[in-house]
Design brief:
This protein is α+β, with helices and mostly antiparallel strands. The chain has one domain: Beta Polymerase, domain 2 (2-Layer Sandwich), CATH 3.30.460. It has 7 helices and 5 strands; from the N terminus they run ααβααβαβββαα. A 5-stranded mixed sheet has the order 1-2-5-4-3. Helix 6 runs antiparallel to helix 7. It binds ligand 0O2. Ligand 0O2 binds next to helix 6. The site of ligand 0O2 has 10 residues, from helix 6.
Length: 225
């Protein structure tokens, strides 16, 4: 028997054994439940923003929200984060230490609407603010802008209430456009150091220009009343 056939036998007999499969199943179930709770938390937060948008539409005839994009973190990127943070690989530790498994991105037309919506959300009595990072007032050195909130929101299950953490990112259309381009460039391989440096400078310039444009368009909107 050659080495490859031997390896196949080892995989079949040991790695794929009933005992190993039972262990995987036993650990997957609580993880799948946790991911389902995060999906429920996303629904709660999305609904809160949709309700606010509806109210503004009725009362002031305008929609502060252009789009809402939500996601739960992929298992692959969750695993990378567990490894980088060097936290124990257990459902409890993941829930305690990782704040952005549930993410809701709220895209607005104007910068003022970002702060107004964040205030409206944080005033709600079932929302607890855990962390706030204002990358609009203090942009990252590369030019990244957004308002980040980590909030806790309750979800109501059959027999219990669970408080789940959600990362809310609020940004303008221009900030979102910039962030997706920067994200694409960051993961582009085979760029020479010179090209990377040139693109980084160009991106920073674009971030400043689009922040200026955001403010000028907001001023026009405000003048219109
Ligand atoms: P993904 O795929 O979008 O989820 P922490 O999460 O607290 O461990 P950190 O860096 O302190 O890490 O969090 P921070 O600064 O609040 O940023 C987290 C998220 O903001 C990132 O998630 C991005 O979505 C976004 N972000 C932050 N900085 C940048 C940036 O420079 N460029 C772009 N395009 N996005 C940024 P993930 O997990 O990186 O990715």
């Amino acid at each position: 028997m050659n080495i490859q056939d031997k390896m196949k036998d080892v995989v079949k007999d040991y790695v794929m054994s009933d005992a190993v499969l039972d262990t995987i199943r036993a650990n997957m179930e609580p993880m799948e439940a946790l991911m389902a709770y995060y999906r429920c938390a996303i629904m709660e937060i999305e609904t809160k923003f949709r309700v606010l948008n509806e109210q503004f539409s009725l009362q002031y005839d305008r929609n502060p929200i252009e789009t809402i994009k939500s996601r739960t973190k992929s298992i692959e990127s969750l695993a990378k984060k567990v490894r980088n943070k060097k936290i124990p690989l257990s459902v409890q530790s993941i829930e305690e230490n990782i704040n952005d498994i549930a993410g809701v991105r709220v895209i607005c037309g104007f910068p003022e609407d970002i702060y107004m919506l964040a205030d409206c959300l944080l005033k709600q009595d079932d929302i607890t603010l855990i962390e706030r990072k204002d990358y609009i007032a203090n942009p990252k050195p590369n030019g990244y802008r957004s308002l980040h909130l980590i909030v806790s929101v309750p979800i109501f299950l059959k027999d219990e209430k669970k408080n789940m953490k959600v990362e809310v990112q609020l940004r303008t259309i221009a900030m979102d456009f910039w962030a997706s381009l920067e994200h694409k460039i960051r993961y582009k391989k085979n760029l020479s150091e010179d090209v990377q440096e040139k693109l980084a400078q160009e991106l920073l310039y674009c971030a400043e220009q689009s922040a200026d444009l955001d403010l000028r368009m907001q001023n026009i909107r405000n003048e219109l009343g």
